[in-house]
């Protein structure tokens, strides 16, 4: 299987976009709406979109696996953002020009400090040794997730640095309709980006876990394929999102053969998200922890141990996973 594109920066829309004078459906503070037009983005045609791989855009927070302290580490997304004063100037520019392009930044003075361990994302442009903000006024970047790191406690719950493992959700190799929760060596995820989804991320659109027993999991970008996706046509895609069961997703990300990534979000089409149950929750899931089930102490309360206790159990959907006694059904 070819290595799919790593999500390091904002992904452009598959269609050209325009700005409408109405409240954003995605950002409460934004008084304008960015919507798709019916015109295909020229970069799509250059990258041969017809041969691209269409994958589900998952609603979580972006992560990255790369080296730190001489071993594979999980990194959390942390965009360096402007100070309050610089943000006001930038928003005035956006309101005047409906774009962040052309705004003059002073990176040393206009941006908040970040941890010393912060690094800019790959392919961030640099000028005079300083990373350049994108058109949204952010400098995409990453910070390593340490064990028991409170700001990133949900990130740290899905990695075991001692065993060098991550908790991953992926389609089963034997049956693509079946989702599988398992452990994967962090070394196998090197230089990949993933989405952290779960109870305390983005309002939990997938209904995972509970306040008493939060559930979080990593999903490698590009791993959840969309079979028989519609053509890249505004009306066909709108109908697919609105009317089909498979279209109950946040969006689509196309991975082109030349490495280009393009996306389409429901908000680009004026469609609500989430809107009822999601397609991810329409698929059965199995917990497969056979290779590590003996590694975790039964008295521990961490997520790895909780899933190890469920080894071999099937659930009809993600929201049905629960760590109380009597899980649904063993294999």
Fold and architecture overview:
The protein is of the alpha+beta class. It has 3 domains: 1-58 and 224-276, no CATH class; 60-79 and 143-223 and 284-331, no CATH class; 80-139, no CATH class. The chain has helices at residues 42-46, 84-97, 107-110, 153-156, 234-243, 303-309, and strands at residues 15-20, 33-40, 53-57, 61-68, 71-77, 119-120, 126-127, 130-131, 141-144, 159-160, 165-171, 179-185, 193-198, 216-220, 251-255, 261-265, 285-287, 313-315, 329-330. Strands 6-9-5-4-13-14 form a 6-stranded antiparallel β-sheet. It is globular and about 60 Å long.
Strands, helices and their partners?
Elements: E1 15-20, E2 33-40, H1 42-46, E3 53-57, E4 61-68, E5 71-77, H2 84-97, H3 107-110, E6 119-120, E7 126-127, E8 130-131, E9 141-144, H4 153-156, E10 159-160, E11 165-171, E12 179-185, E13 193-198, E14 216-220, H5 234-243, E15 251-255, E16 261-265, E17 285-287, H6 303-309, E18 313-315, E19 329-330
Cofactor: Mg(2+); Mn(2+)
InterPro entries: RLIG1 (IPR041211)
Protein name: RNA ligase 1
């Amino acid at each position: 299987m070819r290595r799919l594109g790593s999500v390091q920066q904002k992904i452009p829309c598959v269609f050209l976009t325009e700005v409408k004078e109405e409240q954003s459906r995605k950002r409460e503070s934004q008084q304008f709406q960015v919507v798709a037009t019916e015109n295909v983005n020229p970069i799509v045609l250059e990258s041969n979109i017809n041969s691209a791989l269409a994958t589900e855009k998952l609603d979580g927070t972006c992560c990255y696996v790369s080296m730190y302290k001489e071993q594979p580490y999980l990194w959390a997304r942390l965009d360096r953002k402007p100070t309050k004063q610089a943000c006001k100037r930038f928003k005035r520019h956006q309101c005047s020009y409906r774009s962040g392009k052309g705004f003059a930044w002073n990176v040393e003075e206009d941006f908040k400090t970040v941890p010393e361990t912060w690094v800019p994302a790959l392919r961030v442009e640099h000028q005079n040794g300083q990373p350049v903000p994108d058109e949204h006024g952010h400098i995409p970047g990453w910070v390593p997730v340490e064990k028991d790191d409170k700001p990133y406690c949900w990130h740290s719950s899905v990695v075991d640095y001692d065993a060098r493992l991550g908790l991953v959700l992926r389609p089963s190799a034997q049956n693509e309709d079946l989702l599988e929760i398992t452990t994967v060596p962090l070394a196998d995820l090197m230089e990949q980006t993933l989405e952290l989804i779960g109870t305390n991320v983005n309002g939990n659109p997938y209904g995972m876990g509970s306040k008493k027993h939060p559930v979080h999991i990593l999903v490698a970008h590009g791993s959840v394929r969309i079979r028989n996706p519609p053509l890249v046509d505004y009306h066909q895609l709108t109908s697919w999102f609105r009317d089909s069961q498979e279209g109950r997703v946040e969006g689509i990300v196309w991975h082109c053969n030349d490495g280009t990534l393009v996306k389409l979000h429901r908000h680009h089409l004026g469609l609500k998200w989430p809107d009822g149950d999601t397609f991810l929750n329409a698929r059965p899931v199995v917990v497969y922890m056979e290779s590590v089930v003996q590694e975790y102490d039964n008295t521990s309360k961490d997520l790895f141990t909780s899933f190890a206790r469920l080894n071999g159990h099937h659930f009809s959907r993600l929201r049905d996973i629960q760590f109380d006694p009597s899980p649904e059904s063993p294999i």
